[in-house]
Amino acid sequence: MARLVSFSHLAIKVALCLAAVSTVARAEGTIPVSLNQAKLLKLSRAADTIVIGNPAIADASVQDAKTLVLTGKGFGITNVVVLDADGGTIMEQEVVVSRDDQRSVRVYRRASVQTLSCTPYCESSYKGEAERASESEMSASQ
Questions:
Q1: C-alpha span between 75 and 34 (Å, rounded)
Q2: Alpha-carbon distance 74 to 59, whole Å?
Q3: pLDDT tens across 10-56, in order?
Q4: How far apart are CA 45 and CA 65, in angstroms?
Q5: 79 by DSSP, 3-state: which?
Q6: CA distance 104 to 43
Q7: Strand partners, 32
Q8: What pLDDT digit, counting tens, does each position of 70-104 carry?
Q9: What is the pTM of this model?
Q10: Taking the chain, what is the end-to-end CA distance rounded to the nearest angstrom?
Q11: Cβ atoms of 60 and 80 closer than 8 Å
Q12: Which of 103, 114, 120, 125 is the most exposed place for a label (fewest CB within 10 A)?
């Protein structure tokens, strides 16, 4: 019986280790971007073609041959693929666009939602089309 218990403990430990490793592997392939913010991406070689899976979520522009500017336009997950002049893949990564929750407060009043930007004082923040649509969907589901 003691042998069965130790084997099950070992199996649980191995499963937890594998789960931790797979989580780290996924995190390395993800580029987090805040909504309405830009992030610089340095490339290993000159880019020729840039493909964004869903341009409503993120946009990319070329700063120079080896630098991209990635901008969060709407909430969600998409991907970016960068190819060189020969069609070889330079980069292919998932892009996650989310709100910067540390500097914002959401106020719920019955069916309405208001987002305040607190940098350092809380004021009504600029809302893009994607954020207005997201807030109206959240209000409708409540």
A1: 9
A2: 10
A3: 444 444 444 433 333 333 589 999 888 899 999 999 999 999 999 99
A4: 8
A5: strand
A6: 32
A7: 96
A8: 999 988 999 999 999 999 999 999 999 987 767 77
A9: 0.59
A10: 52
A11: yes
A12: 120
